[in-house]
What does this fold into?
Amino acid sequence: MSTPRRIRVWDWPVRLTHWALVVCVAGLYATGEYGLLTMRWHFWFGYATLTLVLFRIGWGFVGSEHARFSDFVRGPRKLYAYLRGTTPAPLGHNPLGALAVLAMLALLLAQAISGLFSNDEIEWYGPLSERISSVASERWTDWHHLGQQILLVVVALHVVAIAGYWLKRREDLLTPMLHGHKTRSDGADARWAAPWLAPTLFVLCAGAVALLVWWGPPPLAY
Ligand code: HEM
Ligand code: HEM
It folds into this structure.
């Protein structure tokens, strides 16, 4: 077996998106659930979350090697083999972690979209909530309430699983998400995407969200 060496795994867009999402989601619960700051901040954190999630989904198709969905989304047979320990842990997300990644991205997307159509019946109306009937907006608000509870459970499981990998297997998943490298005796450095690609994709995603938010509300709302 060759000697362990530092291998490049997570590119900066994956890492930056992850920690920015953590900050935004904390801000969303602080403002939505605990009344810190104002709901204006909740909306801003929501728009940032929507941008980051759209970016991460796009990056899953055009990004660096281990950021791509094709690198880590696996069928049930590979998942079973991984769980039985008959295949080694891959460099990127393992097949079980991949399920959590997909679940979190889907929930974050659903939560941000439902927020756009939600309202608190007093002061705060999502930018698209007046495009639909008040009954429909009420239903979206119910989904928004339910979604935040499910998201909380999934994120808690995510953090417990990462702690579990360390405690049971001494497998450190956390620091690679900070500095981007893993120390392994197998595998090669990930193929990195062109440096201009991530900023370009980010600007496109932010532009799409801005269009939705500023051109979405009916003119009479102002
Ligand atoms: C991932 C993104 C989001 C998360 C995790 C989230 C989370 C939350 C939470 C925890 C609450 C409090 C719910 C409760 O009292 O039980 C809330 C309420 C609310 N959110 Fe969000 N939110 C997100 C995105 C958005 C967006 C993008 C908007 C609109 C631009 C939005 C608009 C609202 C509104 C209007 C309420 C008040 C509803 C009410 O309490 O009646 N949210 N959200
Ligand atoms: C709001 C909270 C969080 C959300 C929404 C979240 C979401 C995610 C997502 C979407 C990924 C996939 C990364 C990618 O491929 O782009 C991920 C991975 C990861 N997260 Fe989080 N995360 C949260 C909190 C945390 C916290 C608090 C930690 C620290 C313990 C953490 C540590 C990690 C690690 C180590 C990975 C990589 C797992 C692996 O190697 O497969 N996350 N997270």
About this structure: Helices lie at 12-32, 39-62, 69-72, 76-84, 95-116, 134-169, 174-179, 197-215. Strands lie at 5-8, 181-184. The pocket of protoporphyrin IX containing FE (ligand 1) is lined by residues 25, 28-29, 32-33, 42-43, 46, 49-50, 108, 111-112, 115-116, 118-120, 124, 126-127, 141, 144-145, 148, 151 (CB under 6 Å).
